[in-house]
Amino acid sequence: MTTFFTIFFILVAVNAGLLTFSMVMNKRRQSEVSGERTDTPREKIYPLDLSSSEYRKAI
Questions:
Q1: Could you give the C-alpha distances from 21 to 12, 27, 40, in angstroms and in order?
Q2: Backbone angles phi, psi at 55, to 5 degrees
Q3: Alpha helical stretches, state H, the chain
Q4: Distances (CA, A) of 36 to 26, 28, 30, 31, 32
Q5: Which pLDDT value is given to residue 27?
Q6: Using one digit for the tens of pLDDT, what is the confidence trace for 8-49?
Q7: Which one, of 21, 39, 20, 23, lies nearest residue 31 by Cα?
Q8: Which residue, 32, 29, 51, 21, is CA-closest to 59?
Q9: Is the C-alpha dihedral spanning 12, 14, 15, 17 positive or negative?
Q10: Count of CB atoms situated within 10 Å of the CB of 24
Q11: Can you give the C-alpha Rg of the chain in angstroms?
Q12: What local confidence, expressed as pLDDT, does residue 55 receive?
């Protein structure tokens, strides 16, 4: 039983360490990306033309 708890607590500690490391790295990336942001969108999104005759024929 003690072996189980030892392995269990080691795995919980490793998981907590990885979670902390991931959160720190994510905050760094967010601060780097937010500095490079611009207000203009990179891609232009066009609306769908759902009133075309081909669509009406399918219905």
A1: 14, 10, 33
A2: -70, -40
A3: 2-35, 53-58
A4: 16, 13, 10, 9, 7
A5: 85
A6: 999 999 999 999 999 999 888 877 776 655 666 677 777 666
A7: 23
A8: 51
A9: positive
A10: 9
A11: 26
A12: 59
Amino acid at 27: K
| Residue 11 in tokens | 């795995």
- Closest CA relative to residue 51, chosen from 43, 59, 40, 39: 59
- Reading the block at residue 22, the tokens are 């991931």
- At 58, the amino acid letter reads A
Kindly report, residue by residue over 27-36, the tens digit of the pLDDT: 888 777 766 5
Please state the pTM of the whole predicted model: 0.50
Quickly tell me which residue has 């490793």 as its tokens.
14
